Amino acid sequence: MTRSRPVVAIDGPAGAGKSTVTLRVATALGYFVVDTGALYRAIALACELAGIDFDDFERVGTLAEALVAKQAVSIEGDARGGSRVLLDGKDVSGAIRTQTLSQGASKVSAQPRVRAALLELQRSAGRSGGVVLEGRDIGTVVFPDAEVKVFLTASVEERARRRFEQLRAAGVDADIEAVKREVEERDQRDSSRPIAPLRKAPDALVVDSSVLSIDQVVARIVTRVREVAVELAAQ
């Protein structure tokens, strides 16, 4: 389909700064954020509430399909240009931001039935354009026709340091080496899963946030989006 404003797909590993960058890019452009990773976190939360192990493929898949079928999980824009996630009509945007659900999201997102259940939900949220989506397979699977694709990355050491600082700021007694192992394990799991693994789209702009400030990262992406928007307007 021809869109008047581009779909911006920002992919990359955990800890690369996708959430912060996505929100700031969307704000600068006046676009809406579609946080697809939050949907997987919501499924992980639903599993936790139902007492279902994240590795129980059969029960997790059945639960995800049931939630989508009855429209019990959804994502919508908020007044600030960001997005909020609803589970059974309740805003769980804050409740899903825990380390346990981060790991749970990585596990449930590796399951084919879960990904299939959420795929159209993600596409419908961004199909009209003027949106910024973040995840790990946005530019390769969810929106392979996205007009702007970005692969945001950073070194393992830098991503572990950021996560460690977040945990310490939250009052969590964390060990930097343990955090680094978790980052490496998640990278391995996300990159090796058989369905929609984390990988860079061939036509993606690669941005390394370990050597750039957030302002520089945002500026680079915003410049690219505006260039593409001008091209679309001229068509």
What level of helicity do the residues show? Answer: 40-55%
| CATH topology heading of the largest domain | Rossmann fold
The strand line-up of the biggest sheet is: 2-6-1-7-8
Shape: globular
Mean pLDDT: 91
> Distance N terminus to C terminus?
13 Å
- Show unreliable segments: none
Q: Largest sheet, described in full?
A: 5 strands, parallel
Per DSSP, what share of the residues sits in E-state strands of 2 or more residues? 15-25%
Compact summary:
The protein has nine helices and eight strands. It is of the alpha/beta class and 235 residues long.
Structural overview:
This protein has 235 residues and is α/β, with parallel strands linked by helices. Helix content is 52%, strand content 15%. It contains 9 helices and 8 strands. It has helices at 18-29, 36-50, 57-69, 99-108, 112-126, 138-142, 156-169, 176-192, 214-234, and strands at 7-11, 32-35, 73-77, 83-87, 90-91, 131-135, 148-153, 205-208. The longest helix has 21 residues, at 214-234. The model has no long low-confidence stretch (mean pLDDT 91).
Annotate the secondary structure layout:
Elements (H helix, E strand, L loop, with lengths): L6 E5 L6 H12 L2 E4 H15 L6 H13 L3 E5 L5 E5 L2 E2 L7 H10 L3 H15 L4 E5 L2 H5 L5 E6 L2 H14 L6 H17 L12 E4 L5 H21 L1
Parallel strand pairs: 1-6, 1-7, 2-6, 7-8
Antiparallel strand pairs: 3-4, 4-5
Helix pairs in contact: 1-9, 2-4, 3-5, 7-8
Jot down its keywords.
235 residues, alpha/beta, Rossmann fold, 5-stranded parallel β-sheet, 3-stranded antiparallel β-sheet, 9 helices, 8 strands, globular
